[in-house]
Amino acid sequence: SSYLEVEYPFVDPITRPFVRDLLLQSYVTARAADLAPALTRELEGIGADARLFIVPSTQMLTGPCWQELEERAHSGATVFVSYFTGERPGPNTPFHPGLWHPDLNTFFGVRHRLRYGLVAPIEEDEIVWHFERPFGGLEASEELRFRARGSEDGRSFLPLEPVAAEVVATDSAGRPALLRRRVGSGSIVLSVYPLEYMAVLGAAVNPDDTIRLYQALAREAGAVAPVRVERPDVHVDRLVRDDGKVFAFFVSYSPDRLEIEPELDEGATLHDLQSGARLERIALSPRGVTVVEMST
After folding, report:
1. Distance in angstroms (rounded) separating the CA atoms of residues 80 and 229
2. Mean pLDDT throughout 207-235?
3. Tell me, what's the pLDDT at 95?
4. Cα 83 to Cα 154: distance, rounded to the nearest angstrom
5. Interacting residues of 236 by C-beta distance below 8 A, sequence separation 6+
6. Is the distance from CB of 227 to CB of 236 less than 8 angstroms?
7. How wide is the angle at C-alpha 287 spanned by C-alphas 282 and 290, nearest 5°?
């Protein structure tokens, strides 16, 4: 979001650090989901080399950026947007609630049911999503749970009716919670709840079920990492050396000893650094790191 780095005269400066916190929360979640996130600057244009674009609950993007995101979806990418009403900077500060989008209904394939100047408050303390159809490895009838947090304005959702979008998951009241609109060879996915905003306000919130959602989005987009684990307390990444050798790093945040079985792309194998023996499982000491060689 360019609202992080540009002092637009119509935005209160106190908002900018909050945008930073939301982007950081989304980045941490993506790393915990074993994705390979990169930040793209709105002012430089949206890159065309990603299969998954995550727009966390920052509320504000410019009109041209929304157009670029729809173009990326039309070309085959998955674009995920987390709705956010915004948060009033102060009691006497002008505030424009709602997602800053020039044509929200058409972009998401919905008809919003907001009332002008009012928000739809989240009344429950825990938000429960029920999946109505399979989505990125999450089966129909599976649930995701999120703790509700936020200010009077921020702790709110987007009431709507699907028009061109399909309902992927509903909340405990049976309302659409996660929707997907097919666009060209890609799709635009909308969460009507401000997931990253609610998470960033909590203490020791990571990991939460946003990680499972990000993993499902990556599977839908075909953007999963070549080596990954389901456990959110184990982080996996790769290092490619100048000579072409690839090493996989497994980092545990668990206080317990672990033995995990990583998921690999077809044809990939892991090998012990010393003996070269093939490894099916990885042993990790408490909060330890294990490095192995990866062959593809």
Report:
1. 22
2. 92
3. 67
4. 10
5. 34, 225, 227, 228, 229, 248, 249, 250, 251, 262
6. yes
7. 35
Is the Cβ–Cβ distance between 218 and 197 less than 8 Å?
Answer: no
Report the distance separating Cα 173 and Cα 133, nearest Å. 17
CA 91 to chain centre: 31
Mean pLDDT of the chain: 90
Q: Which residues, 6 or more positions from 156, have their beta carbon under 8 angstroms from its beta carbon?
A: 85, 119, 120, 121, 122, 150, 194
Angle between helices 15-32 and 210-221 (to 10 degrees): 70
Asked whether residue 16 carries a pLDDT value surpassing 80, the answer given is: no
Q: Would you call 245 exposed, middle or buried from its count of C-beta atoms within 10 A (0-12, 13-18, 19+)?
A: exposed
The per-residue pLDDT for 131 is: 98
Give the largest Cα separation in the chain, rounded: 67
Q: Hey, how many other C-beta atoms are within 10 angstroms of the C-beta on 294? A: 21
How far, CA to CA in Å, does 120 sit from each of 39, 107, 111, 154, 222? 31, 20, 15, 10, 34
By residue count, the chain amounts to: 296
Any residues with CB less than 8 A from the CB of 68 and at least 6 apart, and which? 45, 46
Tokens at 209, concatenated: 């079920």
| CA 219/CA 214 separation, integer angstroms | 9
